[in-house]
Amino acid sequence: MIINNGNKLTLSPVIALLTEIYPEHESSLFGSITAFCEEIAQYCQRHGFFFYVCSLKSLLAPDIQGYIKVHDHWSLADVPYPDVVHNRLHSRKVEKSPLFQQAVEMMKSRGTPYFNAHFLDKWSVFTLLSNFDHLQPYLPETYQLRKKEDLIDALSAHSGVFLKPVHGSQGKHIFRIQQDERLYRVDYTTFSQPFEKEYPTFQSLFEALYTQLQKQGFLIQKALPLQTYKGCPFDFRILCHRVKETNWKVTSAVARVSQQGNFVSNLARGGEIAHVYGLLQEIYAPLTSRQITKLLKELALDICHCITVSTDGLFAELGIDLAIDTDGHPWIIEVNTKPSKQHDSITDKKIRPSAKAIVHYCAHLSGHSTEEV
């Protein structure tokens, strides 16, 4: 797109962010990423880039309409076809739809790069990372739940396990099952159906869970003796972004501490964020805290590289969830291809580092260079 930059006409990359749009909610037009879109828009304006937000149907329309930031509000306008597309669709169902596949084919035919290419489910990530020998010591024992005997075997081998939805997110629909003598103790998150806390037999436990387990695929993961902070479990979200062709960098890192009595630390489930090194210093000596912090970041970057070389499609932003056990050993909990944009860093800056990183990578894909500002 040609824009007037003072007295000189220059080519400006056209950057589109693809997501769900809610016109009836002006203050949260783009749902949970509304503030993030505003930061990207502001940063693009600073660099003279043309940025808009559009829906999947709009991207496929002969005449695209997108939301552009005009002063302090979003305005729907006719916009040019983008030079690069950042995929922030939140629905796995939509990504599997013929409409999305049509958009993918159109982008490919026009030579338009897009990222992040698609969701990666938990089992796919586990099997992918398991292929790298050096990552195996950081992966909790994990199995697919295909039949009742899979859960019987897991509980025979481990005193506690987690049942996690293969396509789950935000700490939803997770069961924690622990064996205590002849009882099975159950904790769980965000189910409309109430479950008992204790079951006297495996059969009574399985019958109670059966309906929920049939609704979606689950995997079984060994419960680890994770480190706690003031009696609460915690983990780490390491946010990484791709730099040009193959390199990745850590953009931000936060610790997420669960609510008292909760076993998941997701912010959507009431968790709180803290500085990684600051929290570790409450538990370990300064030198150990620095070593663990460094190891977590190195492990996150290694995971990004392994995913880059092992998956189809382009990925440029990954949220790596890690935890440490009571011995300080790191464990890989989850990899998010569309990481949450709510509290993804602890900063008082008006534009967070992750928004800047997205703009710089978009500029790179479209053949433009930017300086970190």
User: Which CATH class of the largest domain?
Assistant: Alpha Beta
Q: How many helical elements?
A: 10
CATH architecture of the largest domain: 2-Layer Sandwich
The topology string of helices and strands comes to: EEEHEHEEEHHEHEHEEEEHEEEEEHHEEH
Strand content: 25-35%
Radius of gyration: 22 Å
Q: Widest sheet: strand order?
A: 9-14-10-11-12-13
Low-confidence residue ranges: 2-10
What is the structural class? alpha+beta
Average residue pLDDT: 89
| Biggest sheet details | 6 strands, antiparallel
Q: Can you count the beta strands?
A: 20
* CATH fold annotation of the largest domain: D-amino Acid Aminotransferase, Chain A, domain 1
- Sum up the overall morphology in one term: globular
Report how far apart the termini are.
23 Å
Describe the structure.
The protein is α+β, with helices and mostly antiparallel strands. The chain has three domains: 2-115, Rossmann fold (3-Layer(aba) Sandwich), CATH 3.40.50; 122-138 and 226-337, 2-Layer Sandwich (D-amino Acid Aminotransferase, Chain A, domain 1), CATH 3.30.470; 142-222. It contains ten helices and 20 strands. The chain has helices at 34-47, 56-60, 92-95, 98-110, 122-130, 148-157, 202-215, 276-281, 286-310, 353-365; strands at residues 2-5, 8-11, 14-18, 50-54, 65-70, 73-78, 84-87, 114-115, 142-145, 160-165, 175-180, 183-188, 198-199, 218-222, 228-229, 232-243, 247-257, 272-275, 317-324, 330-336. The longest helix is centred in the last third of the chain and has 25 residues, at 286-310. The protein is globular. The two termini are 23 Å apart. The model is unreliable at 2-10 (pLDDT under 50).
